[in-house]
From TrEMBL:
<keyword id="KW-0474">Menaquinone biosynthesis</keyword>
<dbReference type="InterPro" id="IPR012001">
    <property type="entry name" value="Thiamin_PyroP_enz_TPP-bd_dom"/>
</dbReference>
<dbReference type="GO" id="GO:0009234">
    <property type="term" value="P:menaquinone biosynthetic process"/>
</dbReference>
<dbReference type="InterPro" id="IPR029061">
    <property type="entry name" value="THDP-binding"/>
</dbReference>
<dbReference type="Pfam" id="PF02776">
    <property type="entry name" value="TPP_enzyme_N"/>
</dbReference>
<keyword id="KW-0808">Transferase</keyword>
<dbReference type="InterPro" id="IPR011766">
    <property type="entry name" value="TPP_enzyme_TPP-bd"/>
</dbReference>
<dbReference type="GO" id="GO:0000287">
    <property type="term" value="F:magnesium ion binding"/>
</dbReference>
<dbReference type="Pfam" id="PF02775">
    <property type="entry name" value="TPP_enzyme_C"/>
</dbReference>
<comment type="function">
    <text>Catalyzes the thiamine diphosphate-dependent decarboxylation of 2-oxoglutarate and the subsequent addition of the resulting succinic semialdehyde-thiamine pyrophosphate anion to isochorismate to yield 2-succinyl-5-enolpyruvyl-6-hydroxy-3-cyclohexene-1-carboxylate (SEPHCHC).</text>
</comment>
<dbReference type="GO" id="GO:0030976">
    <property type="term" value="F:thiamine pyrophosphate binding"/>
</dbReference>
<dbReference type="GO" id="GO:0030145">
    <property type="term" value="F:manganese ion binding"/>
</dbReference>
<dbReference type="InterPro" id="IPR004433">
    <property type="entry name" value="MenaQ_synth_MenD"/>
</dbReference>
<comment type="pathway">
    <text>Quinol/quinone metabolism; menaquinone biosynthesis.</text>
</comment>
<keyword id="KW-0786">Thiamine pyrophosphate</keyword>
<feature type="domain" description="Thiamine pyrophosphate enzyme TPP-binding">
    <location>
        <begin position="411"/>
        <end position="551"/>
    </location>
</feature>
<keyword id="KW-0464">Manganese</keyword>
């Protein structure tokens, strides 16, 4: 005998059992009635870790954070109606970030849809443009001479779950349940047992074009390696050293690449932005133009590198990695669909060092910009820019740091991320809507100290994320509050018009103090450099309760300080070379 409780609805039992067979062992549930059969099944299974998060949008981003850290599929479960629509932002983020999010929505039977019942919308294929597969499961009233509803649902589940794992992309399972919804059993039903089969999971790898890659590598005098978002895919030190020690290679990274070496170019815009203003622009850009472009990881933040490579295109572009190869630079990349470490271990012995002055020319310029950054920080007034320099100086080693979108992650990419922080961000769709929820999910999954760096609008937008009973005691939030959407002051536009402040910048006078009290966060606020320098060491050392530090910065200074930085670097690229 077992003390486990099962839903009495066969399809609900089938969903739980197939999730277990596909190693989907983390499940985030939002309350509802139509999804009661799933809630009963998952929450009573001791092999599955379940979480209860009320707000569906927050729940989906929370699950995304867990999947982001573990690199494994995580399921979210909701009731019917508008609940499923609240998952959409996280589904799109998962789709463009290659994160295996499993959306399981409960639905009414087909004969009860669009007849006036509450909490009812058209849910079949709801996410069809942003998932790799949809399974629209049938309720017990489904009639087909060739197969039972359970057999139909079993085939759909196997196909869809397999695609999720094979492609590391989100899927949608829409399950129609008729009442009664709350009846239970004390064992798996015989007809469910009969449907369960051994699961076979394929991981696709392609070694096509490997020989061609080696030949092109060994003949290219200018090779540019770009490493984008790389949350959990560790790149071996041997590979990083090989790339750094080849004179024909320049490696450009961003903070979320988590690939560190002293000879990598960690601030792409500090090179490209001043060149755009330089009187030597065309000559410099041609000297930087690669014969061969190699991309690894996911999305890139820098718009400047995208613009540059679309105009000064490489002769060949290879993307290495299991996830999809995007044609970001309009030069038809060849996709080497294999893990980065596996690929380079296959070819390392065949790669030759090519005589070149590519790195030799650009590295001194990069070192000059690094030094000028240090000088600039000492000279500028209190601002967002100066705040970020202090944050990077004080991050503890091995801290998980989530950078929210808009200006936050862009500032982060100006500073040296070689210190061993683990940086991540939602860069699939680059929205501000789920940064806090994602960072909390990541913190829960990692069980390591985690800090969210966020702007004020992003924080307030996702403030329901704090309505979460699983927030670890060592979780920390830094809100950089410049009283509006500071990024819009950096972008082109007339900043003096009243409509700009109201509809773009969205000025406000809110602070996070009362939210912190409501959700039991320790709260502190600073508005000057001296207090910030004194506060940060203690802030990062406390681990007995969640912390929130609000840093107030001047609204009308920040954009000027940032834009002047690139002018400050201009003499490096305007001299003789």
């Amino acid at each position: 005998m077992t003390d486990q409780i099962f839903s009495s609805i066969p399809t609900a039992q089938l969903i739980v059992e197939y999730c277990k067979r596909y190693s989907i062992l983390d499940v985030v549930i939002s309350p509802g009635s139509r999804n009661a059969p799933l809630t009963i099944g998952f929450s009573n299974d001791k092999t599955i870790q379940t979480y209860s998060v009320v707000d569906e949008r927050c729940a989906a981003f929370f699950a995304l954070g867990i999947a982001q850290k573990k690199g494994k599929p995580v399921a979210v479960i909701c009731t019917s109606g508008s609940a499923v629509a609240n998952y959409y932002p996280a589904v799109t983020e998962a789709y463009y970030s290659n994160i295996p999010l499993v959306v399981i929505s409960a639905d009414r039977p087909k004969h009860l849809i669009d007849i006036g019942d509450g909490q009812t919308i058209q849910q079949e294929n709801f996410f069809q443009n942003h998932v790799c597969s949809s399974a629209n499961l049938k309720d017990d009233t489904y009639q087909d001479a060739s197969k039972s509803p359970l057999s139909f649902n079993s085939e759909k589940l196997k196909t869809t779950l397999a695609k999720c794992l094979e492609n590391s992309l989100p899927i949608h399972i829409n399950a129609a349940f008729d009442e009664p919804l709350y009846h239970t059993e004390n064992a798996i039903l015989p007809e469910v047992k009969a449907e369960l089969e051994a699961v076979q999971i394929r991981h696709l790898e392609s070694l096509d074009d490997q020989e061609e890659f080696v030949n092109n590598w060994n003949s290219a005098k200018r090779k540019l390696v770009l490493i984008g978002v790389n949350h959990s895919a560790h790149i071996d030190e041997e590979i990083l050293d090989m790339l750094a020690n080849d004179p024909s290679v320049i490696v450009m990274t961003e903070v979320t690449s988590n690939a560190a070496h002293k000879d990598f170019f960690q601030s792409i815009d500090s090179i490209l932005a001043p060149i755009e203003k330089s009187e030597n622009k065309d000559e410099l850009f041609k000297k930087l133009q690669p014969d061969m472009l190699i991309t690894m990881g996911g999305m890139l933040v820098s718009k400047k590198i995208k613009k540059y490579l679309r105009e000064y295109q490489p002769k060949q572009h290879y993307h290495i990695g299991e996830n999809k190869a995007l044609d970001t630079f309009f030069c038809s990349p060849k996709h080497l669909k294999i893990k980065i470490n596996s690929f380079f271990k296959n070819v390392l012995k065949d790669l030759e060092i090519v005589n070149s002055d590519y790195f030799k020319f650009w590295n001194p310029l990069k070192l000059e910009t690094d030094q000028l950054l240090e000088n600039y920080v000492k000279e500028i007034e209190y601002s967002d820019f100066k705040v970020f320099s202090q944050l990077f100086a004080h991050f503890p080693e091995h801290e998980n740091v989530h950078f929210a979108n808009s200006s936050t992650v862009r500032y982060a990419n100006l500073f040296d991320a070689r210190k061993k922080i683990n940086a991540f961000s939602n860069r699939g769709t680059s929205g501000i809507d789920g940064s806090t929820s994602t960072s909390i999910g990541y913190a829960v999954a990692s069980q390591q100290p985690t800090t969210l760096i966020t702007g004020d609008l992003s924080f307030f937008y996702d403030s329901n994320a704090l309505w979460n009973q699983y927030i670890p005691s060592d979780f920390k939030i830094i809100v950089i509050n410049n009283s509006g959407g500071g990024i819009f002051r950096i972008l082109p536009g007339d900043k003096e018009n009243q409509y700009f402040q109201k509809y773009f910048e969205t000025r406000h006078q809110l602070t996070a103090e009362h939210l912190s009290k409501m959700y039991n966060f320790n709260y502190a606020k600073v508005d000057n450099m001296k207090d910030l320098e004194n506060t940060l060491p203690q802030f990062f050392s406390q681990k007995d309760n969640p912390q929130l530090l609000e840093i107030m910065t001047p609204t009308e200074v920040n954009d000027k300080v940032l834009l002047d930085f690139f002018n400050y670097l201009l003499p490096v690229f305007d001299g003789e070379f």
